[in-house]
Amino acid sequence: AMVRFPGPSALFLLLLSSMMMPAEVTIIRNFFLMKGLSLTKNLVRVILLGIFGAQGAFCAFMMRQFFLSKP
Fold first, then answer.
1. Which terminus of the chain, N or C, has less C-beta within 10 A?
2. Which residues of 40-71 are buried (b: 16+ CB within 10 A; e: fewer)?
3. How far is 1 from 49, CA to CA, in rounded Å?
């Protein structure tokens, strides 16, 4: 939030659009992604989906808003 780089508004719009998409839309894509990575019978998939899924986008959004509120 504090580092200046080209295109922060486009990245923020991408983050918001990923949060607006319901989880039901991405279930099949996530399954085939985990199947391709051979993680269907492993608990690592739970961690990866939590980080790179909608929960990770929400956490990144909350952290950005928090850092912007700091002087």
1. C
2. eeeeebeebbeeeebebbeebeeebeeeeeee
3. 24
How long a stretch of residues is the chain? 71
User: How far is Cα of residue 41 from the mean position of the Cα atoms in its chain?
Assistant: 22
**Average pLDDT estimate for 49-53:** 74
Judge whether 49 and 30 are in contact, CB under 8 Å. yes
Cα gap 34→49, rounded to integer Å: 9
Q: pLDDT-based confidence at 2, cuts 50/70/90? A: low
Alpha carbon separation from 7 to 13, 28, 41, 63 (Å, rounded): 10, 31, 39, 18
